[in-house]
Amino acid sequence: MIDIRPTTEQDLDLFVETMHAAFGMFVDPPGEGGTGVWWSAFEPERGLLAHDADGRPVGTAGAYTLELTLPGGRIVPVSGVTAVGVLPSHRRRGVLTALMRRQLAGLRERGEVLAVLLASESVIYRRFGYGPATSTQNYAVPRQRAALAPLRAGDADPGTVELLHRDKAVELLERVYDEYRRLRPGSVSRPHRWWERGAGQPPIAPKPRYVALHRDAAGRPDGYASYHVDDDRTLRVDETIAVTDAAYTALARYLLGHDLVQRVVFRHVPPDHPLPWLLADHSAGQPEKYTDWLWARVLDVPGALTSRGWSADGELVLDVDDPFLGEHHRHLLTVRGGEAACVPTDREPDLSLDVSDLGTILLGGTAPSTLARAGHLRLHHPDAAARADALFRAERAPHCLHWF
C-alpha cells in the first residue's frame, strides 16, 4: 500500500534526504542563507512524497514553475519535473507509476498544457507520455587548430568583450539569459530565485568562474560565456549565451584565442549551431557527448498545438493515443496565418501517434517523417508525412541548456 501526499515547507529536509537516498547521494550542506546547493531552489509546496504501509518515505517527485519558449516565440507556463526517485528497497513495486499518475493529474489541475523534464535514464519516461524534444552536445577544439575564418569586409564586430568574475556579474548574466531564452525555441526560464540562491549548475551556482561579457556598439550587454581552465589546461565553457550572431562570434573568438590552453570545450552546443563554420579549419572541432536533453509531455493536445506559432498553412487530422492516462482522441489541426485551431473530429486520420511522439515533434526538433520512418507514426495518406513536416517545422532547432 502506497500513500502519496503533497509536501510543505516543513517537509523540505525529509524530501531532500529521501530524494538523495534514492540516487545514492549524500546531502551537501547549504551555504549561508540556505544557498549554494543545486536543490536550494526547490518549491516545497510542489513536491510529492510516497510513503509505504509503515509510513516510511520511499519516493519523491517535484516540479519547478517555469516558462518554455515554443516555435514562433510563444511562451507558455510549464512545470519542470524534477527530483523523481524511489528508494532502491522499493523499486518495481509501482511507486514511480503512482507518483507520475498523481503528479500528471495535479499538473492538469493547474491548467498547464505541457510538462518538461530532463531524463536521468532515457528508457524511463516514454511510458509516462514524455518524448525527447531537444538534444545538445559538447564541441571540442584543439587550441593549435582554433583559428577562426577571416571576417568579410564590413563584418567586424563593433562591440566589446569584457572580462569579469562570476560573482560580480550575476545580475548581468540573469538579464542576458532572460533575453536569450525568449528568442530560442526549447529554452526554459531561470527564475530569479535560482540566481538569488545560487541553485543549479554554473554560472548560476556560485563556483569560481570567469565571465566574458559581450556588449554591442551601444554598450548594451547581449552575450556572455562562463568558463574556467582545468588542471589539464582545458578551457571548459559552461555555456555561451548570445542574443545575436555577432555576439556569439566575438565570444567564440575570445575563447578560442585564450593563451596557455590545450583545447577549448564548449558545452551545450545546439545541433544547428554555426560554430564549426566559424573555424578556418572546418574539421578542427569535434562533437562530443551528444545527448537528449529536454523531454516534453503534452497534457492538453488542443492547448499545446494552439500555443505555438506556425510557419506554414495546412490541415492535419491527428489520432493521438495516451495509454498511460487511458485516453484516445482525434483532432483536426488547422493552421492559417501562423495561428492554429484544434478541434475534435470524426474525420479519417492523416496520421496516428503516441502522445510521447507528439511531445517530440511539437517543438520542431524532429521531423514527423523521421519518426514515421522509425515506425513511431502511422501514416494513413501518402502525403501525410510531407504535410506534417511542413507544418511542424520550426524557424530554429529547439535547444535547452538549463539544468533542473
TrEMBL record:
<feature type="binding site">
    <location>
        <begin position="84"/>
        <end position="86"/>
    </location>
    <ligand>
        <name>acetyl-CoA</name>
    </ligand>
</feature>
<dbReference type="InterPro" id="IPR022902">
    <property type="entry name" value="NAcTrfase_Eis"/>
</dbReference>
<feature type="domain" description="N-acetyltransferase">
    <location>
        <begin position="2"/>
        <end position="154"/>
    </location>
</feature>
<dbReference type="InterPro" id="IPR036527">
    <property type="entry name" value="SCP2_sterol-bd_dom_sf"/>
</dbReference>
<dbReference type="InterPro" id="IPR016181">
    <property type="entry name" value="Acyl_CoA_acyltransferase"/>
</dbReference>
<comment type="similarity">
    <text>Belongs to the acetyltransferase Eis family.</text>
</comment>
<dbReference type="GO" id="GO:0030649">
    <property type="term" value="P:aminoglycoside antibiotic catabolic process"/>
</dbReference>
<feature type="active site" description="Proton donor">
    <location>
        <position position="125"/>
    </location>
</feature>
<dbReference type="Pfam" id="PF13527">
    <property type="entry name" value="Acetyltransf_9"/>
</dbReference>
<feature type="binding site">
    <location>
        <begin position="120"/>
        <end position="121"/>
    </location>
    <ligand>
        <name>acetyl-CoA</name>
    </ligand>
</feature>
<dbReference type="InterPro" id="IPR041380">
    <property type="entry name" value="Acetyltransf_17"/>
</dbReference>
<protein>
    <submittedName>
        <fullName>Acetyltransferase</fullName>
    </submittedName>
</protein>
<feature type="active site" description="Proton acceptor; via carboxylate">
    <location>
        <position position="404"/>
    </location>
</feature>
<dbReference type="Pfam" id="PF13530">
    <property type="entry name" value="SCP2_2"/>
</dbReference>
<dbReference type="GO" id="GO:0034069">
    <property type="term" value="F:aminoglycoside N-acetyltransferase activity"/>
</dbReference>
<feature type="binding site">
    <location>
        <begin position="92"/>
        <end position="97"/>
    </location>
    <ligand>
        <name>acetyl-CoA</name>
    </ligand>
</feature>
<dbReference type="Pfam" id="PF17668">
    <property type="entry name" value="Acetyltransf_17"/>
</dbReference>
<dbReference type="InterPro" id="IPR051554">
    <property type="entry name" value="Acetyltransferase_Eis"/>
</dbReference>
<keyword id="KW-0808">Transferase</keyword>
<dbReference type="InterPro" id="IPR025559">
    <property type="entry name" value="Eis_dom"/>
</dbReference>
<dbReference type="InterPro" id="IPR000182">
    <property type="entry name" value="GNAT_dom"/>
</dbReference>
<keyword id="KW-0012">Acyltransferase</keyword>
<comment type="subunit">
    <text>Homohexamer; trimer of dimers.</text>
</comment>
